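Researcher: For the annotation table, I need structure tokens for Trichohyalin-plectin-homology domain-containing protein. Please keep the output clean. Sequence:
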Amino acid sequence: ARNRLMANVHKSRQENLKYKFDKRLEAKRQKQQDRDEMRGLEEEYKRFVGLEKQQRYQRRKQIEKDQLKLIAQKDQKKTLERAMARHERLQAEERDRRLEAWIEKEKNDPNVKKPWHGLTKNNWYT
């Protein structure tokens, strides 16, 4: 009876130790699984943050490129307007010079009695 009681106590103690060992083992396994999951989530977050930074950088670069393009277009427009104004001024000066030369030639031409513009040597400067 005593041996059987001691065997039961020993068996109960062994079961208790095995239960505690299994529980500790399961806790370690769960902890490792949680660590792995956290590590995976951290890596995913880092990838996401890296992607987000890269996208922000690309957006900023695109905005800078667009701004530079706008500035270049404005400069180009100003240059074009200046060139057009200069061209128009040169054309006007050339027209005036031709007209003055033609009027001078016609004014000094003895064959012309009454020029179309009404200017003669007598009333030219009045």
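Researcher: And a one-line annotation?
Model: The mean pLDDT is 90.
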